[in-house]
User: Fold this.
Amino acid sequence: MAKRVLLAAPRGYCAGVDRAVITVEKALALYGAPVYVRKQIVHNKHVVATLEARGAIFVDETDEVPEGKTVVFSAHGVAPIVHEEAAARNLKTIDATCPLVTKVHNEVKRFATEDAEILLIGHHGHEEVEGTAGEAVGQVRVIDGIDGARNVIPTPGKKLVWLSQTTLSVDETLDAVAILKERFPEIQDPPSDDICYATQNRQEAIKAIAPQADLVLVVGSPNSSNSVRLVEVAKEYGTPQAFLLDYAAEAKDEWLEGVETVGVTSGASVPEILVNDLLAWLAQRGFGEVETVTAMEESLLFSLPPELRKDMKAAESK
Assistant:
């Protein structure tokens, strides 16, 4: 059998990432460098390095931004206290939070007004989870995976609701929810699915590829939750080996020993140039035949943050 590559579609940039990256690019063009960005705008090493080269300065906390300067909040969202900190320092803020993350923030706020206890399925320490939980301090309990669902002890007498981080494994989340519902039959579902469309679609594509592939390569950074999940899903659905890599240069020739079919995909914060580099690396090693496996067509676009659009419009009218 000829050596081949099964290329997942969709892959790479989702609408929220595209919006966030363009937001920083437009801010640099409009206001000039430097533009400060709180945390990594998206979880991808290449994207961050490219924007740094253009004049973006990435900081961990708001107090690292000089007073009165412009700061962009990352796609993962921030807690209300971060907005308060920015206001106290007289910072101009541009909120590049993905609208699908904002949706979960709004769900937290709504359930918090009902005095519910919110079980948020997600990873402790992830920026998105910290921002979401910060919408209702003391009312959100983070459920980290299956063990978290098995071991959580809610406050007696409280109305219970579950929500989730947007970039989780769909299957693992459903397993955690099943445990919660078995333990607490009265627990309320979110009004709509929290796991984002792009995360689900990329997982569906790799589920179709994994059983046919001897090896799956996922382009993405280790701190990208949805990229890490793609490696896990590939293994779960039948590929003998799967690896996560930021750049084609990190790929190893020994991975290809005895391999005839390679599955390739990329996380939702990965530019296509990095996938093309990996395909070129594979082609040099005899894997020149590329077949695209499409799980879903994507066409969603998000408009830029309103505060940026307003300034762009004002600049155009001058």
Q: What stands out?
A: The chain has eleven helices and twelve strands. Residues 206 and 234 are 6 Å apart (CA to CA). The mean pLDDT is 97.
